[in-house]
Amino acid sequence: MSLTVSVRLGQPVEEAADTYLATTGWSKTALINTALNEWLRMQSHPGVRFVPTPAGDRIAALVRGPAVWTVAESWNQHDERDRTVDNVTASTGLTRAEVDIALGYYADHTAEIDAQIARVHRAQTIAREAWERRQALHG
């Protein structure tokens, strides 16, 4: 389903949007969809913001902390019987509130966060394999 919306932007917002579109190559539709989607998610999960990655993605992160996927990965690294906010707090150095915020977002967007974790693991594997090939050159 798609919803067609006609919006009249104030001049400062329009100018800022035009500048952003010119520098990123995004379409107006992509900008509005991304901005609204991220804003709605931030309203549902206070303490979460969105940040760009070097690969060009935009991912959820804690306002004063790391990407949400890093907290979710810490959560998943614990045995099921040891998956507690206190254990994740101890292993990450984050506050209990920050861990709760990240896990709340993870609970609502599990597939998205699990896909980010999988991409990071794949990139790590590729980097390790490249390093091993270079080391083999040295005998």
Entry keywords:
139 residues; two-stranded antiparallel sheet; 6 helices
Describe this structure in words.
The protein is mainly alpha-helical and 139 residues long. It folds into two domains: 44 residues; 92 residues, no CATH class. Helices cover 65% and strands 7% of the residues. It has six helices and two strands, in the order ααββαααα. A two-stranded antiparallel sheet has the order 1-2. Helix 3 packs across helix 5 and helix 3 crosses helix 6. The model has no long low-confidence stretch (mean pLDDT 94).
Report a brief summary of the structure.
The protein has 139 residues and is mostly helical.
Helix content: 55-70%
Oligomer: single chain
The low-confidence runs, each spanning 5 or more residues with pLDDT under 50, are none
Order of strands, main sheet, comes to: 1-2
Order of helices and strands: HHEEHHHH
Tally the helices. Answer: 6
What's the shape? globular
The average pLDDT is: 94
Number of beta-strand segments: 2
- Major sheet size, sense and barrel closure: 2 strands, antiparallel
Distance between the termini: 59 Å
User: What Rg do the Cα atoms give?
Assistant: 19 Å
Number of domains: 2
Strand pairing plus helix content: what structural class?
A: mainly alpha
Strand content: 5-15%
